Amino acid sequence: MAAPALATQDAFEEFLERERTKDLLRFTTAGSVDDGKSTLIGRLLYDSRNVYEDQLESVTKASLGRNAGVIDFSLLTDGLRAEREQGITIDVAHRYFSTPRRKFIIADTPGHEQYTRNMVTGASTASLAIVLVDARKGLLPQSRRHAYIAALLGLRHLVVAVNKMDLVGYDAAVFRQIEEDFRAFLREFPSIHPYFIPVSALCGDNVVARSSNMPWFEGLSLLDYLEQVPVAGRTHAAAFRFPVQRVVRPDRDFRGYAGTVASGRVRVGDAITVFPSCKRTTVTAIITFNGNPKEAQAGEAITLALSDDLDITRGDLIASAANSPTTASSIRATLVWLDEAPAELNRRYRLKHMARQEWTELKAIDYRININTLARESAPALEMNGIGAVRLEAARPLTFDPYAQHRTTGSFVLIDPVTNATVAAGLVQGPAEESSFARPSLRTANAINWQIQNGALVISTTRPGGFSARNGNSSGSAITDEGTLQTFHALLEKLGVSLF
Amino acid sequence: MTALSHLRQLEAESIHIFREVAAECQKPVLLYSIGKDSSVLLRLAQKAFYPGPIPFPLLHIDTGYKFREMIEFRDRYTAELGLKLIVHTNHAALNGGANPFAWGIQRCCGALKTTALLDGLRAGGFDAAIGGARRDEERSRAKERVFSFRNERGQWDPRNQRPELWNIFNTHIRPGESLRVFPLSNWTELDVWQYIHAENIPVVPLYFAKLRPMLVRGDTLLPLEQPFIPRLPGEQTQLVKCRMRSLGCSPCTGAIRSDADTVPRIIEELIGMRRSERQNRVIDHDQDGSMEIKKQEGYF
Asked: What is the mean pLDDT of chain A?
């Protein structure tokens, strides 16, 4: 970033305004071990003058102990001591830089096989992925996997950077062969717009400026491409979706619903439907700290006031009355398993979907995707880094759009109720046919009875083949105060009954 | 319709994070450190909960060595906004003579910042501490989650973090464990100043250049607020046109030479700047990876 040579105050104000209003591109990077991904990012930051001198000094100092070039650009991004010591990238790292045209957020993900889950994490917030291919090695199973994950997570732009061109004599034939192989593979992913570029991250060829070493390449440099690729997402054109994050009730006279517009736009006077209750009403005001606009668009955090006093809570979804999402408690989804403990059938997990949390049970693993061949394989279990098509049963209905149509309303995570770990990333495919394992619920069903008998908590169901459970012995031992809640939950668990 | 500008996107994401904390955590607190990032954090919190009030108190870990102008600003600004402010200080360490020259920087920071923070959080029974740290500040922070898990001892385990996908945050913890929440994770120093400019947010006057008495030691400008700062033989303060780029404890925060006396001039200066923001913070330099080590011990 060069200091602006701005003669007049007006020019400076104009410059500030331009800086303030530039847009944002989030991208993720993926590659295999040693294909130079960290170096590429370090180079991008360095050559676009987004690295400070003292940062450079500290990595130059650290570089002396290692056998890389004069400046080891990878040290600019490998932030943890273990990473610098081992020369590897462990975790998703976020990097920021900006040019006069755009601000960029990079989710830099490691290339190790066991860390594939990190690419899913990085891709989940990105709209573009850069996949690195080592010019000497050509297309690897990992490259395919990266492209598959990018497509799965709904990224539309894929930059294939063929790196280490300096080591193959900047040979056009090498680059073209890799491009041809990759394009053949990408035919399976018609949603992806690829851009192929030959680079040398180490030498800086085609990273920020076009390289004179490869006059046969006529495309844009990597940075030029990143600056001009369109970012306006599909979310603006899509139907209105607004997950309710909080009910705002500062006093008796005001009741509003706070959230971020997930897609589309909303205007005062619009007819809306609240899901899953399906109640209809209209928008009376859009409230923000900076005033009450007549309309709001995707991405804005606002508060809505509605004309009727409905029972709306956190976790509900407000949507346009015209174009409804789907509501179902039994869903089909793609799961990316993130945890060391594999997925367990019939186990209960917490499902977090927008602002909603529900108990859910993994009912079936229909198949697993072999990420190298993309073949569907039968799978008794889903292990870490495994991607599978599953069926889930939630305790209460979820309102969603398929992930392929909507990133926010179609995504969820699973949380292990014992370890509290985030164990899976979920992408909704659609509703599953109503199944027989609908779970009785304390709130909705009269199939559940619960009462205190002689100080013991007794819960029973009156469904066919009903069962009952109680804490303590048959004479009904007393519940201690501190134990009551645990006992209650344990009994519900025993019965397979949800609290809501 | 055009895409939202980067500032509007960052703002909306931060508001979303604030609302998630308020909705899902039992007893959150906002760690207020008085600097520019804290000022932005307060504005974002106001926006997130408007027209209601900010639903949690502020906690300031006062080492006792903050700049006088910082404390004045803190008391005035938080009163103006009608916020509840808790100030926690490790008085035992201060009474025991803790200062960076007598104890060394590491031990002093450990007692007055890390221990004080953990004690302050425990005293209030807070399960989520919202802070203004940004990922672009330091290398180890680049790996930190927005909702960052801490064990019973307040420690961070960088190699065992929960994956964080989309904008879905996992806030589940067991009793005694806690979360640190960073709504400004994706902001850069430049974003923060642009937002301060766009929103006209008040900041401590120390950020603006003016003539200040400083001890000049090579490239370092050292403010002379505390009596224990040792002077070299015959050393006198000089009036230097300078400003603070980041604010911490006065004995460990150097000023930078600058003429930037307005927010637009600071932005102009930043765009031409060749040194990183924390370069004048003595505390990060004591060893390679020192921030990572402090964070593992419980430092913010």
From this structure: 81
- Say yes or no: B146 and B83 in one domain: yes
pLDDT in tens, B180-194: 999 999 999 989 999
B50-56 contacts at long range (C-beta below 8 A, 24 or more positions apart): B50/A287, B50/A288, B50/A289, B50/A303, B51/A248, B51/A250, B51/A254, B51/A256, B51/A287, B51/A303, B52/A248, B52/A249, B52/A250, B53/A250, B53/B82, B54/B30, B54/B83, B55/B22, B56/B22, B56/B27, B56/B28, B56/B29, B56/B30, B56/B130
**Residue B290 covered by a domain:** no
Q: Is the complex ipTM higher than 0.85?
A: yes
The answer to whether the Cβ–Cβ distance between B6 and A22 falls below 8 Å is yes
Which of B5, B165, B267 has its CB closest to that of A413? B165
Q: From the CB of residue A63, how many other CB atoms can be counted at a distance below 10 Å?
A: 18
CB contact under 8 A, B165 and A23: no
Domains along the sequence of chain A with CATH: 9-228 (3.40.50.300), 240-320 (2.40.30.10), 326-431 (2.40.30.10), 448-495 (no CATH)
Q: Half-sphere exposure of A191 toward its Cβ, with a 13 Å CA cutoff? A: 15
- Regarding whether B271 and B151 lie in a shared domain, the answer is no
Which band of pLDDT confidence, cut at 50, 70 and 90, is reported for residue A462? very low
Please check whether residues B131 and B235 belong to one and the same domain.
no
Q: Based on the fold, state whether residues B42 and B176 are members of the same structural domain.
A: yes
- B103 at A interface, C-beta within 8 A: no
The encoded tokens of residue A408 equal 């926010």
Q: Which chain A residues are closer than 8 Å to B16 by Cβ?
A: 245, 260, 301
Residue type, A70: V
Question: Which residues, in sequence order, are CB contacts of A300 under 8 Å at separation 6+?
Answer: A260, A261, A288, B4, B8, B12
Is pLDDT above 60 for A86?
no
Question: Which of A4, A80, A124 lies at the smallest CB-CB distance from B158?
Answer: A80
What pTM was computed for the model?
0.85
Chain B stretch 250-279, residues whose beta carbon is closer than 8 A to a beta carbon of chain A? 264, 267-268, 271-276, 279
Same domain, B126 and B271: no
Residues from chain B contacting residue A421 (CB–CB below 8 Å)? 162
B115 and B142 together in one domain: yes
Residues of A in Cβ contact (< 8 Å) with B274: 52-53
Reported as a single tens digit per residue, the pLDDT across A291-346 is 999 999 999 999 999 998 889 999 999 999 888 899 999 999 999 999 999 999 99
Residues B110, B113, B116, B120: is their CA dihedral positive or negative?
negative
Domain interval for residue B116: 6-193
Q: What confidence tens digit (pLDDT) does each residue in A399-446 have?
A: 999 999 999 999 999 999 999 999 999 999 999 965 434 444 444 443
CA A259 to CA A249: how far, in whole Å? 14
Residue B108 counted as domain residue: yes
The pair of structure tokens assigned to B131 is: 């802070």
Task: Quote the number of domains for chain B.
Answer: 2
* 8 Å CB contact of B275 and A52: yes
In a domain, B291, yes or no: no
**Which of A94, A102, A89 shows the shortest CA–CA distance to A126?**
A94
Indicate whether B127 and B276 sit together in one domain.
no
